[in-house]
């Protein structure tokens, strides 16, 4: 079939639309925010494609897969199995990295296990195989009288019961085994959990070292090597200190240091396995520890003045208020230890000798355990979640692991090299650098044959990442730190690597976070995916992507209840002729976002200055931010924009203004912060994670609405309070669905079914509450109003009309007052937050930070958003925007352009000043595109 045919699509706000889309083409779905693009692309076409594919599987397989609900549509024909590549929130698992998500790291582990050259972790010399003779010599070097156990490691970290192994060993005449660290006699019944990983070691001999036992040790070592295929484990009894384990190997051991490496296999290089992970941080790379700077926040204070904050206001439980008695007990302890060690209680903390400070913090050899040790013990031992949260939030901070220095792996894994680099060295490279390394790496003929297939996979994945504009990302970059657009493009690169054909790919604004310079490479990638024989359905607002599409579907004419119709569907030439299409009017130049006739200029002394910013790839830059202006931070992807604004500037200001404990990125000095009283980040994170959160609860409008209903005559006569009209508390809500309006029915291998509550009919409140009306509407009917309707309905209530009017001004007039937060897009959530800030009384000394606020916005929506941002600036505030959208850039008062490239080739201030000045800069990629827009 050559087309996808849709008949009677009614999902969400779609108005029973009929549509035909060509297959094996690049199709762009565009239109105003809220016009129904995602409802058509994801909730209808993708949902049905995915549902049909999963339904073709067995009932057993379906119970492990998420099966989407059948969309509200009459007919869809010509569908292929569908894959959605969305701007999902990246994984918050600290073990998830760019390397693990793309499977790059798995191939690198295999490469190092097969051709890696081991080196001694102590002396750094290359390790050669160790003979049985050398192993025996090492054991005989131990002092006479030392007791040793010689073990043969038969099973290491494998699941199973191993009954047959135990029987074989017993028949062979062996007596003991050590299982998971515990010694058993082989005559015993050893029962192991089939599904847990076990380590089994055969106890070959127990012997005391002296000159006469060499031959016995030789026999035992040879037996152990034979049973374990080349390894022997020797446990040296050190008396009171316990047993020291030494692993010897015929394969990898340092002859000089006596250090042996375990068997070199892929799991040795995995930070998700106990065989490879750093034992100190278990493969996370950092540890949450008590921070001295939080325990002693003001080193200028003395002990008597309360320098030790953790003990001057001790943690108590909610139910037991022992502050005074506990405070007295701690004070007595401090008095005693200061008297014993001659520590001054009146001198400032910073003037005390470091040795005395360490006694107070870490304890002495007597009865005093120390403040930090005390907090660590209480955090570890307490059963009170409240106490744990108090210690965690007030006195603990995440720090780089002191043992592995953030590398996540054991030193043995880091001592194996390929091409002179360890696996950690390579993961710390950017994608672009790693690509160059693997292309140029010098290998022997044997290693080249072994690694041929592995290197092919590694190079292919690195090329795909580079082609979608992610060459600046390091392979060890945590997934949680990626922007939505970056995460989406990583998934896109992974899909290209799969080489599938005949698939329907549905993408959500893949150009987000991408500079205009890199758009061409992304488009080439999409076209390559199309040319493999796939259909690409892309929800997009980017002009270049729209112009390069084979087919365009424009939805509208408005948003929400005013949208949901197909305005025009066809190639670009047909779209440009459609007079009703807002998209066509912007593409034709009939509608334009104008360049300001006059830009605001910096005022004397009104600057925020950061000197010596050097976090990540920033190269010791000095930044001057003019206050009271609309400032845009620009630059190619990976040039350091988010690092400068979020990691350095925001965290430094939050620490200065709010006393935040988040550590800012590296910088030398900050000036001008006293001219600000608030710094607010307006990002695209959800306004709530449950259906109970909605625009009126987030903006604070729900309180006045409940107050209005509580003041009606019926409410007063019945004694109803505002809480009666909340679906979050008992009283007025429907208790059958607990104010949700729906009930979830779990269907095992079928998708969960959500049905309207049969008691309240989906209205969330009980009948008595719904009898109360204001101007003829009950509380449920009010929550089902759009913002536009609500603005006129409450026009005579000043505070409420201001909040709803602001929501309407930011382009959310189509959203329902009680619309669940889970159904709002990232762009809609950001505008709800923006409206909330706008509706508050402006101080004129606030810095608003926005990261790509144009995500999900049509040209017309961008124009509305710009009006809102400039309103904030007109009130005396400063707006700082990280953005690639040229319409936002050209209307800003001031630009700070970073670059010139991404990653290690970025991190410099390329140019700063009004947009016209940036357009003239020969080094600025942004300036090159801005020149055309400004017609400079």
List keywords for this structure.
36% helix; alpha/beta; Helicase, Ruva Protein, domain 3; 18% strand; Ribulose 1,5 Bisphosphate Carboxylase/Oxygenase; six-stranded antiparallel sheet; single chain; 936 residues; Rossmann fold; six-stranded mixed sheet; 5 domains
In short:
36% of the residues lie in helices and 18% in strands.
Overall description:
The protein has 936 residues and is α/β, with parallel strands linked by helices. It has five domains: 3-90 and 482-588, Rossmann fold (3-Layer(aba) Sandwich), CATH 3.40.50.300; 126-262, Ribosomal protein L1/L10, rRNA-binding domain (Ribulose 1,5 Bisphosphate Carboxylase/Oxygenase, 2-Layer Sandwich), CATH 3.30.190.20; 286-400, ABC transporter ATPase domain-like (Helicase, Ruva Protein, domain 3, Orthogonal Bundle), CATH 1.10.8; 596-686 and 824-936, 3-Layer(aba) Sandwich (Rossmann fold); 691-823, Up-down Bundle (ABC transporter ATPase like fold), CATH 1.20.1580.10. It contains 35 helices and 31 strands. The protein has a six-stranded mixed beta sheet. The chain has a six-stranded antiparallel beta sheet with strand order 9-8-10-7-11-12, with helices on one face. A six-stranded mixed beta sheet has the order 25-28-29-23-30-31, with helices on both faces. Helix 4 (104-115) runs antiparallel to helix 17 and helix 5 crosses helix 7. The chain is globular, with a radius of gyration of 33 Å. The model is unreliable at 314-326 (pLDDT under 50).
